[in-house]
Amino acid sequence: MTQHSTHTLDKTVLITGASGAIGQALAVCYAQPGTTLILQGRDQARLEQTAAACTGAGAEVRQQALDLTDTEATLAWLETVCAERVPDVFIANAGMNIGIGKGFEGERLEQVAALLDLNVRSTLLMTTFIAARMRRAGAGQIALVSSLAAFYGLPVTPSYSASKAAVKAYGEGLRGALARFGVGVSVIMPGYVDSAMCRGMAGPKPFLWQPQRAAEKIRAAIDANRARLSFPFPLNLGCWFLAVLPAALSQRILRWLDYGG
Known about the structure:
This protein has a single domain (11-256), classed as NAD(P)-binding Rossmann-like Domain (Rossmann fold), CATH 3.40.50.720. The chain is built from nine helices and seven strands, in the order E-H-E-H-E-H-E-H-E-H-E-H-H-E-H-H. The protein has helices at 21-30, 44-56, 71-84, 109-137, 158-178, 196-199, 211-223, 235-244, 247-256; strands spanning 11-15, 35-41, 60-65, 89-92, 140-145, 183-190, 228-231.
């Protein structure tokens, strides 16, 4: 029995990106008897590992290896999921990152297109689909995984920063639109969490968290219907300050911190 055993049972939780580090940790965090986990990922082997761990913890698990940028297949899958039961919790966690490269050669067009397709287009389409059904049900909780990079664009990852800023703004707007219908929306803004994607990013990675610690923090925020969760401190405060300081000063700070500015 986990420390979350006092939470309401008979809960359905849909998590995208469950074959990645944070998604795997979130799935395990929610896994307990009485919980049905619907897990999407692109890596079949890692998705099966996640499913096995969650089943071992007593959860009922349904897994779906799917490329979320395939809109027709994704919406058909969601239709099937919601026809049986609208999820109580939807965590839009799937995403990718690209950068300008260690030699500052810049981002490639095809990479930018793929990133926007997954991080923004598929996230907003899926969330719109789920939100409409939660609204009709009069209940539900949505969590959108953004990033601290949404506060201020990082020179090493400009497109990623832009995509996560879009998710942040969308989540903030959606929270206000759905509140009167009993649906909660939380925007999750992690800093550096140890993962393959994180290790592939250029620049320093201060205050690195392990996925399990991040997952516990995220679940607590979702359970409390927090409008925004950003971590870790003080990195979150520093990123927020970059957004409110004069832009020229923020750029100088990023150059000083070796973020490619």
